[in-house]
């Protein structure tokens, strides 16, 4: 310990009074001589964040290790102190991991809990750790480190989900189902094409995570409370040690903004919105009214009163969790609204919504990654639904246009044919040629090729179309796009 080493830069007495030259005893153990009474018990608990920000302990310790190393290399801290700090932090981290660490609300937050424990273990060297930094740049650094990991974890779960979708789409490139608009049968599509629509939605979510990660991977440390520090620090050393791509360029901005957390909760809200749409389709399709799919029992629950029930709980719950994801985004946007520079205690409220969004996103994406590849597809139910709803009516109109009608006239002709089909409960493909010719004398025997479901989907073989051949090509391109979606080369 170097407490008696007066030549040590950080052991010089601070300007003004210190605890030793004061005539009065310090009456507030936490905030020191400025205070003449201790914090109100309720206020202490009310302002504390340690119950939730202890989640940041690993990042906080990593930040402290890097900061101490930088202080030593910059000549602010001596080697002996550095070793004591590193060893002390290692012990504390091990204790926290083992559940042996005593968190104290009186010490307010994760930062002061760890610092106090360090000082208790190693003495004055522990008190030197906070040289040249503030909890303001410390917490901003911790959250960025935490969120960087959360982005990586979410990206890996998202990638697993997307790979599962590509496999599912490959299996069903030629499986025909009705496509819907307004939830009314519109045109036949392939189930593989439908799954690839989900893929596109979620691929953009993965890309958004990568965008957010790139923007947040800048280091606030060095900003100290708000204005920077008068010690000869070298921020490049800390940046390198902590794996940040760059430094936050302005100290006021570094300690105050939480736009990166807003971005993450926004990404989560958008992704949950997408998952809720998929969830809604799964719930509908599993119903007795659709019967397009079944979910394996392990993703469902039963009813305590109705023995016949098998409920799609996982998709329903994901759909429901969208509410909290939107709520967390609103909470953070509102938290930051109108906050003057620089740090305000308001910012302590950033953590719970952010942590909840991280947990929600990881949980929902994981559940879908496990469940979606396992859905059982009822080909026949999908096919007969596609046949039942006049889904090839547009194909008949296109056929008539090829025979010389204008599209509007063709639309009119087919409308009459559909009205007849509704009245006689007969699909277009099941009508005798003579009946069809009653609507237009341009209709000939070859019409039945376009009225079939296969004819309809195969005709849409361009990029982005629903034809099985187009879907297979889309899957191939998608595999390459997935490789670079999160981290572009
Ligand atoms: N617990 C605080 C937070 O989460 C740490 C920063 C406190 N800084 C301060 N000046 N009170 O934001």
Give an overview of the whole structure:
With 489 residues, the protein is mainly alpha-helical. The chain has three domains: 37-131, Orthogonal Bundle (Fumarase C, Chain B, domain 1); 136-224 and 249-383, Fumarase/aspartase (Central domain) (Fumarase C, Chain A, domain 2, Up-down Bundle); 385-483, Fumarase/aspartase (C-terminal domain) (Ribonucleotide Reductase Protein R1, domain 1, Orthogonal Bundle). Helix content is 59%, strand content 4%. The protein has 20 helices and six strands. The protein has helices at residues 41-47, 50-53, 57-73, 79-97, 110-122, 124-128, 135-171, 191-216, 235-242, 251-256, 259-286, 313-336, 351-371, 379-388, 393-402, 407-424, 433-437, 447-451, 453-458, 468-485, and strands at residues 176-181, 184-190, 218-219, 246-247, 293-294, 376-377. It has a two-stranded antiparallel sheet. A two-stranded parallel sheet has the order 3-4. The chain has a two-stranded antiparallel ribbon with strand order 5-6. Strand 3 (218-219), helix 9 and strand 4 form a beta-alpha-beta unit. Helix 7 packs antiparallel against helix 8, helix 7 packs parallel to helix 13 (351-371) and helix 12 runs antiparallel to helix 13. The structure holds arginine. Arginine binds at residues 49, 53, 109, 135-136, 139, 343, 345, 347-348.
């Amino acid at each position: 310990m170097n407490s008696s080493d007066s030549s040590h830069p950080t052991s010089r007495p601070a300007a003004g009074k210190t605890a030793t030259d004061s005539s009065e005893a310090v009456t507030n153990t936490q905030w020191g001589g400025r205070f003449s009474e201790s914090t109100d018990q309720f206020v202490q608990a009310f302002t504390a964040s340690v119950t939730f920000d202890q989640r940041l302990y690993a990042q906080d310790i990593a930040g402290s290790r890097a900061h101490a190393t930088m202080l030593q290399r910059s000549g602010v801290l001596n080697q002996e102190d550095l070793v004591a700090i590193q060893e002390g932090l290692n012990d504390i981290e091990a204790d926290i991991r083992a559940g042996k660490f005593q968190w104290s609300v009186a010490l307010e937050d994760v930062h002061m809990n760890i610092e106090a424990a360090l000082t208790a273990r190693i003495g004055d060297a522990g008190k030197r750790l906070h040289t040249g930094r503030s909890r303001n740049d410390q917490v901003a650094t911790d959250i960025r480190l935490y969120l960087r990991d959360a982005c990586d974890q979410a990206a890996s779960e998202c990638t697993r989900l997307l790979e599962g979708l590509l496999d599912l789409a490959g299996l069903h490139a030629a499986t025909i189902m009705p496509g819907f608009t307004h939830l009314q049968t519109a045109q036949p599509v392939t189930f593989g094409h439908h799954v690839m629509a989900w893929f596109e939605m979620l691929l953009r979510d993965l890309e958004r995570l990568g965008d957010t990660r790139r923007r947040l991977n800048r280091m606030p440390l060095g900003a100290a409370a708000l204005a920077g520090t008068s010690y000869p620090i070298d921020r490049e050393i800390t940046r390198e040690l902590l794996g940040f791509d760059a430094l936050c360029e302005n100290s006021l901005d570094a300690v105050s903004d939480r736009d990166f957390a807003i971005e993450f909760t926004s990404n989560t809200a958008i992704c949950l919105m997408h998952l809720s749409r998929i969830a809604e389709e799964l719930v509908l399709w599993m119903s007795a009214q659709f019967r397009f799919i079944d979910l394996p029992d392990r993703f469902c629950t039963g009813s305590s009163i109705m023995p016949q029930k098998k409920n799609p709980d996982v998709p329903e719950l994901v759909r429901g969790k969208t509410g909290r994801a939107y709520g967390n985004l609103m909470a953070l946007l509102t938290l930051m609204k109108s906050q003057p520079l620089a740090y305000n205690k308001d910012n302590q409220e950033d953590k719970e919504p952010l942590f909840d969004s991280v947990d929600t996103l990881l949980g929902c994406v994981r559940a879908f990654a496990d469940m979606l590849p396992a859905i059982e597809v009822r080909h026949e139910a999908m096919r007969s639904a596609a046949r039942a709803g006049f889904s090839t009516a547009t194909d008949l109109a296109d056929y008539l246009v090829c025979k010389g009608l204008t599209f509007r006239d063709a639309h009119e002709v087919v409308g009459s044919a559909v009205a007849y089909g509704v009245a006689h409960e007969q699909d277009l493909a099941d009508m005798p040629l003579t009946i069809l010719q009653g609507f237009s004398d341009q209709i000939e025997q070859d019409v039945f090729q376009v009225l079939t479901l296969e004819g309809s989907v195969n005709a849409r073989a361009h990029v982005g179309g629903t034809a099985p051949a187009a879907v297979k090509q889309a899957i191939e391109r998608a595999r390459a796009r997935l490789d670079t979606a999160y981290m572009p080369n």
